[in-house]
Amino acid sequence: MSTSPCIAFSLIIPIYRSESTIETLVSRLESLDYPQPWQVIFVDDGSPDDSYSVLRRRLSHSPLAALVVRHTRNYGEHQAVLTGYRHAQGEYFINLDDDLQNPPEEALRMLEHARLQELDVVYGNYIVKKHNLFRNAGSGFANLTARLLLDLPDSYYLSSFRCVSRLIGEHIAVNSSPYVYIDGLLSQSTNRIGSLDVRHDPREAGSSGYNLRRLIRLWLVILTSFSLMPLRFATLVGLGAAALGGLSLLYILITAIFGTVEVVGWASVISSILFFGGIQCLLLGVMGEYVGRVYLTVYGKPQAHIRSIEWCGCIQPPQDRQQDWVART
Known about the structure:
Blueprint lengths: L8 E7 L6 H9 L8 E6 L6 H9 L6 E6 L5 H11 L4 E4 L8 H14 L3 E6 L6 H18 L11 E4 H8 L8 H8 L3 E6 L13 H14 L3 H29 L8 H34 L6 E7 L6 H10 L1
């Protein structure tokens, strides 16, 4: 009975609006020189353009050991990465972007760094970031929020260019929540986390898919899915408002006793009502966000649905994996 060769690493590449970069991306991957077998997993995250067809045509004459997984719709980058983790066979899982801003050659350096330092997670720390100003500002704010809420050190940048050991990758891949933040899952699973300075290239084509709406959604996931700090903050605000109200009541009682109460205008009363009413609505919104996410998770909102899985390459998956993939489709 033959056994499948040991696969050194799996490259996980989410695909979305990538038809203009796929040719160059696959060519760069084909030029990688590594002595052990490795594989690449493309996850088509419901791309509305012709990315899937272009990818299939290009892989039809490629020597890469590649797996193409298609989502039924666009679920998001983190969901696509977890889908890739569930189908990866390598000893390490390495995330790459489809726009080639993460050089594939740098992935090999991250792999060796993880092995030599015995790390479970290695983040690519961009020497010079080539994102636009808006993307840099949004990513910086998300990183700051993650460090505050997840108690992460400032020594590494939480980039999407990451190398994860199979042990940790398979552990977080069992997560089925529709609200996914991979760096939060990683920080809860291991403390063997490091970073490596890597090159960050300009985009090959197109523009970043991260708009303000996506960045806000990511920030809300970080804020509400991995920490109770917003609820604790709401408690402190409530206590502060109650204390302020108590002091105001004490002041009124004292002035009433000494007969110095003055009738003031309605403007201050209305302003106070609007101010404290706004705080109440804000705090109700925070609690509602938690309750809503719990409801949607219990209700069964999917993390992702798979339309198809297709193997394209020279290394065939084990028979048990083939049966598992067929069952998932």
